[in-house]
Amino acid sequence: MSRLIIMSNRVSAPMAKSDGAQGGLAVALTAALREHDGIWFGWSGETSADNKVNITTFDGVTSATVDLTAQDVDEYYNGYANRTLWPLFHFRLGLTEFDREFQGGYERVNRAFAQMFAPHLLPDDLIWVHDYHLIPLGWLLRQQGFANRIGFFLHIPWPPTNLLTTLPDHGRLVESMFAYDVVSFQTEESLESFVHYVTTQMNGSFDGDTKLTVNNKTICVIACPIGIDAQEFIAAANGPVAADSCARMAASSAGRSLIVGVDRLDYSKGLEERFAGYERYLQNHPEKRKHVYLLQIAPPSRSDVDTYQRIRASLNALSGQINGEYADIDWVPIRYVNQGYPRDQLAGVYRAARIGLVTPLRDGMNLVAKEYVAAQDPKDPGVLILSRFAGAACQLKGALLINPYSADDISEAIETALAMPRGERIARWQPMFDSVREHDVMWWRERFIAALAG
How far apart are CA 374 and CA 356, in angstroms? Predict the structure, then answer.
């Protein structure tokens, strides 16, 4: 049986189940690595001048990591990955920075990864490359003579052609993806945008199914939406930690309805617009103000990037302004928390919440929406309010789908959700729960690997 080799920007080392912090993606991939005797390659997260590959094995999973120099981190990670590709792929052209040094650092680090990891690869390994940080890695491995089956999965959206063409050397980036045997996206929309670019800008042809061809090179392209570790998360939601968390939230709510949002502190998550929509609800329904509150959990990320510093400052100001305007001595409308929590504890928070507010401006999938659905009490579920621009909206059709840019849309959805009778809530929740359970992260992993194995 072929080994499975995973390559990603960061490596998630396996940890004890009791830790509760390991995400569903890491759980699925580490399980696959155990089954296939594989290796997970990536950046250590550390900076140094030492480019030695450090190999460790823990709990049956082998990881191989390398340090990057401070210049590499600045140009490859903070630069091209997170100041060029991330905003562009999330349709935020106004925030996208085009810098040749960023592009040079991105190509340099991808080339270094290919060179450093190559000695550890075997001819029949299945190689699975992840996400926008490493788009050209498959092409660079081919340059070193590897004929292995190599696949690529993009976790974030793929932009429309007219946006992608603003990227310098966009054609070269897309052409490098034809070194893969399988290229997968989260949604049909992203897949269609990729096919549109290839057929209109590269004179490619598409068979209408999965085969995309350019210059006699044919690759398989699929939409394969990622899921959560549903079985584990449902068990956690019914476990003692979640029960304690749920009880604590109920006690602190003092009979008020809890609206919860859980997001990385990122401009793509629509947090400023969410706060504005919630404020609109408070403005429109003064008689209901003290009957509801919003808990927004937003752990910081990418704090070295200027745009992330600005969004944090903006949200601090907005939450303070809303609380200052509407709070009373025994009630505040927003509890705004800048730290993360273990997933089993979050499961209890989700269950306690009458509304899950998931309103990204653009998202590849958004697993918080699926976690919220999985955590609900089947006899009395809450209501998911979901941006129509999240990839999860394609699967979670029982949610109240809204335009996250519209404060009125958000306000009206909150009003509808709070007034929704239990029968309708159950009828909306059940098909979403079935979808989350059926199309979980293991389903996603097995579907991709089956396509990659050919």
Answer: 12
